[in-house]
Write a structure and sequence with these properties.
The complex is a heterodimer of chains A (232) and B (500). With 232 residues, chain A is an alpha/beta fold. Chain A is built from eight helices and eleven strands. In chain A, 35% of the residues lie in helices and 25% in strands. Chain B has 500 residues and is mostly helical. Chain B has two domains: 285 residues, MetI-like (MetI-like fold, Orthogonal Bundle), CATH 1.10.3720.10; 208 residues, MetI-like (MetI-like fold). The chains are: A alpha/beta (232), B mainly alpha (500). Chain A: GO terms for molecular function: ATP binding; ATP hydrolysis activity.
Chain lengths: 232, 500
C-alpha cells in the first residue's frame, strides 16, 4: 500500500497537499486542471521534489528521505526516456545495472523483455531508428526489467496519436497486471482513465483528493472536476 | 569592406613576402614555440575546465551566479593588466615565491614557456569553463532525472551523460582556445621573448620594429595567416556554442554526486578556480592603489589617447556591425560565418603589417597610429559583435519585418523607428565589449607608435621595461578601471529603459 501521510509538496512557489492511500496493485489515474499539481504529486513519490511536511510510505516503510534511485519506483517522463547514444538493448539494460555490466542471464532477461513488448530482434538499433510508438515500448521494456513495485507515468504517451496511445495504455495495463505493480498515471484525458484505471485521484486547487472509483467519479463529477471537464 | 580591408592588407603582405628570403632557423623555432604553447595552453585550459565546470554544474551555493559572471570578465580584461597581476602572484618577487621562500624553497620562474602558458590558461580557463558548463547545462533536466531514477553512480553518470556531452563539446573548446593562443602577442611580448619563447606574432613585431625587415615580417605574416586560418576553420566547424549563452547561472536540480568525496572535490575545484581568477585581480588592485594617486602626466596623456582610440574604435565597429548584422539576418548567412573566420584568423599584427605596407609609400604610418589602431581594434571586435547582434537582428526582422512592410515603412524609417531601437540592448553590449577590448589592446599600437605616442597599455609596457613596477601597477589599475568602466557604461546605457 502506498500512503501519502499528511504531505505538503513544494514545487517552486506553489504547494500541493495530499493525505491519501493507494492499494497495492491498483491502477490509478491522476487527473485535474493543468497547473494544479498532477506532475508535482508523482514527482514527490519518485523523489524528485521534496516533501516539506508529512511522510510517504510504501508497505509501512518510510520513503520520504530516500534518493530517487533507491525507491521501489520506476518512472516514465513526458519525453527523454531513452539515451540516444545507447542501443535499444543497452537502454533496457540500464534498468538492471546503470553501469551496463550485465551477466549472460541478465542480457537474456533484456532480450525477453524486448520480446514481450514486441521489439524482438531490435536490440542493436539506436532509438533514432525507431518510431515514436516503438520508443515508448523500449521504455516500457526497461520498466519491466526494473521490476519495481510502483510505476509512475507522467504522460509519456502524450505525443502519440490516439490509436497508438490506447495501444500503449493497454500494454501498460497488461504488464502491470502480470507483475502486480501499482500504477500511478498522470493524464489530462478522462478517456485514458476510463480505459485502464480502476480509480482516479483528482488534483485541484492545491489538493490531491483520495482515490475514487473511476466510473463513479467521472459520471458524477464534483464541482472542481466539472469545471475541468466542461460538463457543468 | 571589411573583407576588402583584411584581404587587401593580406594581398599587400603577400606581394611583399615574395621578396623575402625564405625561413630561417629562428622562424622555424617561432613556429614550433607557437604550436607548443598553444597546444599546452588548450590542453591545460580545457583539462582544468572540465572538473571546474562539473563542480559548477552540480553545486548550488551563494555567489555561484556571481562567480559564473566573473568567468566572463577575463574576456574584457586588458592583457597587460592581467600580466601584472600574474607577476604579482607568480613572479620572482610575487606571493607564491615569498610563500615558497618561507619554506626555504627557490622562487618560481615565470618567464618563458610556462609563464606564457600560465597567462594563457588564466585567460582561457574561464572561457573553456563557460563553454563546457554550457554543455552540461544543455543536458536536458529529464536526463538527470532518468539517471537518478536508474540509480546511476559516478561511472554510469559518465557513461550516460557526461562522456557523450564532452565528446561533443570538448574538441570545440580545445580548438577555440588553441586558435586564440596561436595569435598571442602581448603575453609572449611580456612573459616570453628570447629565441626560445617567441611566437610568430612576436617574431613579426621584432622583424618589423628591430630590423625593419618588411619582407620577413610579411613572410611571417603569411605563415601566421595559414596557421590561424586553418585553426579558425577547424574551431568553427567543431564548436557549437560560443560561451556567450544566457542562462548559464540556471541551476539544474541534481541527485548525483552527493557523497562526501564528490562534495569536497567539487568544493576544491571551485575554490581553486576562483582563487586562480581572483588572486591576480586582487593583486593588481592592491599593488596599484599606492601608485594611482601619483601618476605622471605621460600616463594621463596615454590614458587620453586610449579613450580616444576606444571611442573611435567603438564608432567604427558599430558602423560596420549594425548594417552587417541586418544583412546577415536578412538571409546572407555566409556573411556571418565569413566574418567569424576572418576575425579569428586575421591577427592584429598581420593586418597591422599589411596596413603599414600599404600606407608607407603614401604617408607617414607613425602619424596615423591612432586611427589605424582604432580601425584594427574595431575589425578584431567585429566577430564578437556579430555573434551578439545577429541573433537579435534576426528576431527583429522576423517579428516586425512584415508588419513594417504592411505599414509601408521601409528603408531609413524602418532602421530608425524599428531596427535601431529594438537592437539597443545588444548594441550597448557589443559597444561595451568593443570599447573595453580596444582600451586594453596591446597589439597593433606597438607596431605603429613612435616614442612620443603611447596608449595606456603601451605606456604600462614601457614602464615595466624600465622596471618602474609601482608606476606600472598604478597605471594598470587605471586601465582596469577605464576598461571595465567603458564596458559598464555602454552596456548599461544600452539596457537603460530598453523594454524587452
Amino acid at each position: 500500500m502506498l500512503r501519502l501521510e499528511n504531505c505538503r509538496i513544494m514545487n517552486g512557489d506553489y504547494a500541493v497537499e495530499a493525505d491519501l492511500e493507494i492499494a497495492a496493485g491498483a491502477c490509478v489515474a491522476v487527473i485535474g486542471p493543468s497547473g494544479a499539481g498532477k506532475s508535482t504529486l508523482v514527482e514527490a513519490v519518485a523523489g524528485f521534489l521534496p516533501v516539506t511536511r508529512g511522510r510517504i510510505l510504501w508497505n509501512g516503510a518510510d520513503l520520504t528521505s530516500q534518493p530517487p534511485g533507491k525507491r521501489p519506483v520506476a518512472m516514465l517522463f513526458q519525453d527523454g526516456n531513452l539515451f540516444p547514444h545507447l542501443t535499444v538493448a543497452q537502454n533496457v539494460a540500464l534498468g538492471l545495472h546503470a553501469n551496463l555490466r550485465l551477466s549472460e542471464a541478465e542480457w537474456s532477461q533484456v532480450g525477453a523483455a524486448l520480446e514481450r513488448v514486441g521489439l524482438g530482434g531490435m536490440g542493436t538499433r539506436k532509438p533514432a531508428a525507431l518510431s515514436g510508438g516503438q520508443q515508448s515500448r523500449v521504455a516500457l521494456a526497461r520498466v519491466l526489467v526494473q521490476g519495481r513495485d510502483i510505476l509512475l507515468l507522467d504522460e509519456p504517451f502524450a505525443a502519440l496519436g490516439p490509436a497508438l496511445k490506447a495501444e500503449m495504455l493497454d500494454l501498460v495495463s497488461d504488464l502491470a497486471r502480470e507483475s502486480g505493480a501499482t500504477v500511478l498515471m498522470v493524464s489530462h484525458d478522462p478517456n485514458d482513465a476510463r480505459r485502464i484505471a480502476d480509480q482516479v485521484v483528482l488534483v485541484a486547487e492545491g489538493r490531491a483528493h483520495p482515490p475514487q472509483a473511476t466510473a463513479e467519479l467521472l459520471d458524477n463529477p464534483p464541482p472542481a472536476l466539472q469545471a475541468y471537464l466542461g460538463t457543468a | 569592406m571589411v573583407a576588402a580591408l583584411i584581404l587587401g592588407t593580406l594581398g599587400a603582405v603577400a606581394l611583399r613576402a615574395e621578396a623575402g628570403t625564405g625561413f630561417g632557423a629562428s622562424d622555424w623555432a617561432a613556429l614550433r614555440f607557437t604550436l607548443t604553447q598553444a597546444g599546452l595552453s588548450a590542453l591545460l585550459s580545457v583539462g582544468l575546465a572540465i572538473p571546474a565546470a562539473r563542480a559548477l554544474a552540480r553545486r548550488r551555493f551563494t555567489g555561484r551566479s556571481l562567480l559564473i559572471a566573473l568567468l566572463g570578465a577575463p574576456f574584457i580584461l586588458p592583457v597587460i593588466v592581467a600580466i601584472l597581476g600574474l607577476l604579482a602572484v607568480f613572479g620572482r618577487a610575487g606571493w607564491l615565491s615569498s610563500l615558497l621562500g618561507m619554506f626555504g624553497l627557490e622562487p618560481v620562474q615565470i618567464y618563458g614557456l610556462h609563464g606564457v602558458v600560465l597567462a594563457h590558461v588564466f585567460f582561457n580557463l574561464p572561457l573553456a569553463t563557460r563553454l563546457i558548463l554550457q554543455g552540461w547545462q544543455e543536458i536536458p533536466a529529464e536526463r538527470f532525472r532518468l539517471a537518478a531514477q536508474l540509480d546511476a553512480g559516478p561511472l554510469a553518470m559518465w557513461r550516460l551523460l557526461e562522456g557523450p556531452m564532452l565528446r561533443r563539446g570538448a574538441p570545440g573548446a580545445l580548438a577555440v582556445v588553441f586558435a586564440i593562443c596561436l595569435s598571442s602577442f602581448a603575453v609572449a611580448l611580456t612573459l616570453g621573448g628570447g629565441p626560445k619563447a617567441t611566437t610568430i606574432e612576436l617574431a613579426i613585431y621584432q622583424a618589423f620594429r628591430f630590423d625593419f625587415d618588411l619582407g620577413r615580417a610579411a613572410l611571417l605574416s603569411g605563415l601566421q595567416l595559414l596557421l590561424t586560418g586553418a585553426a579558425a576553420l577547424v574551431a568553427l566547424r567543431v564548436s557549437a556554442g560560443e560561451g556567450f549563452g544566457a542562462g548559464l547561472d540556471r541551476a539544474v536540480r541534481r541527485w548525483d554526486g552527493q557523497s562526501a568525496l564528490a562534495r569536497s572535490l567539487d568544493g576544491f575545484w571551485i575554490v581553486l578556480s576562483a582563487a586562480f581568477l581572483l588572486l591576480p585581480l586582487a593583486a593588481i588592485v592592491l599593488a596599484g592603489l599606492p601608485g594611482i594617486l601619483s601618476l605622471k602626466a605621460s600616463v594621463w596623456q596615454a590614458a587620453g589617447n586610449s579613450i580616444l582610440v576606444a571611442a573611435l574604435s567603438t564608432v567604427i565597429l558599430l558602423g560596420l556591425a549594425l548594417p552587417m548584422a541586418a544583412a546577415a539576418a536578412a538571409g546572407r548567412a555566409g556573411l556571418t560565418e565569413l566574418s567569424g573566420i576572418l576575425g579569428l584568423a586575421a591577427s592584429p599584427l598581420v593586418i597591422g603589417t599589411g596596413l603599414f605596407i600599404l600606407i608607407y609609400p603614401i604617408a607617414d604610418p607613425f602619424a596615423l597610429a591612432l586611427p589605424v589602431t582604432a580601425l584594427v581594434n574595431a575589425v578584431m571586435a567585429l566577430p564578437f559583435a556579430m555573434r551578439i547582434l545577429v541573433p537579435r537582428a534576426r528576431e527583429v526582422l522576423g517579428r516586425y519585418g512584415r508588419l513594417s512592410l504592411s505599414l509601408d515603412m521601409q528603408g531609413w524609417a524602418f532602421v530608425r523607428r524599428v531596427y535601431l531601437p529594438r537592437m539597443r540592448a545588444q548594441t550597448g553590449f557589443a559597444a561595451g565589449l568593443a570599447a573595453a577590448l580596444s582600451m586594453g589592446d596591446l597589439g597593433v599600437v606597438a607596431l605603429f607608435a613612435d616614442p612620443d605616442f603611447a596608449t595606456l597599455p603601451l605606456q604600462i609596457y614601457r614602464l615595466m621595461g624600465a622596471y618602474r613596477m609601482e608606476a606600472a601597477a598604478g597605471a594598470a589599475l587605471l586601465l582596469l578601471l577605464l576598461s571595465m568602466g567603458a564596458f559598464w557604461i555602454l552596456d548599461r546605457g544600452g539596457r537603460w529603459h530598453a523594454e524587452a
